[in-house]
Amino acid sequence: MVLLENDSFLTELTRLFQRCRTSGSVVITLKKYDGRTKPVPKKGHTESFEPADNKCLLRASDGKKKISTVVSTKEVIKFQMAYSNLLRAHMDGLKKKDKKSKSKKTKATQ
Fold first, then answer.
1. Running DSSP on this structure, what letter comes out for residue 106?
2. What is the DSSP string of 73-105?
3. Around Cβ 60, how many Cβ atoms within 10 Å?
4. Which domain, by its residues, includes 57?
């Protein structure tokens, strides 16, 4: 997994979307990131760790290539605006639901 800067993450994410436009999918995950690189031990020595500020970890993968970035609280607004514009631009290849299958299910249950 490659940890990128925010701007380079968005450009690589654009490339992932373009590569998977005809077939395939892109999986994006978002979670709170406290800066730890090692897992917390289950028993025994537990040290209190207080992060300086809240951060978000974003990961994207197409099954072959994985990219990630860490967004700090100072950069959230700028990153969120660029990220939402990118998602809007590449969400045109979604499949529509079958309305026929929904009506068949309701008739079968009645």
1. H
2. GGGHHHHHHHHHHHHHHH-TTPPPPPHHHHHHH
3. 21
4. 1-36+50-76
